[in-house]
Amino acid sequence: MNYLTSANFTTHQEAFQQAIIEIKTSSCKLIEEYPLLIELTTGESLLVTAALEYYLNNQLTAPFSYDEAKAFCEQLRQMVGFNNISYTLRTWIEKNVQGQYFSTETKGWESTYTLKEGIELAEINQELLNFVCYVAICYMKFGASYESISADRLFKLVEATGSDEVAKLRENGSGELTISESSYSDTNVDCTANDVFAIIDIKIKNEKQAAYEKSLDFIVRLLDLNFPKSYQIKFSSSENEYLPIENLPYVPVHNFFANALKYPELHSKIKLYAEKSMRTYEWYTDLEDEDCAMPSTFAVLGLGLVSSEYWPLVKKYMETCDEEHSSIQTAFTPVFIKKFGFTPETLPIFISCVLAVQEHEPHAVFLEEINDKATLELLLTCKRNFEDYLSESQKEDWKNELDEMIEFVWQNVCYTIWGVCFDKPASIVIDSASEELKHIYQEILL
Question: From CA 144, how far away is CA 312, in angstroms rounded?
Answer without folding.
Answer: 27
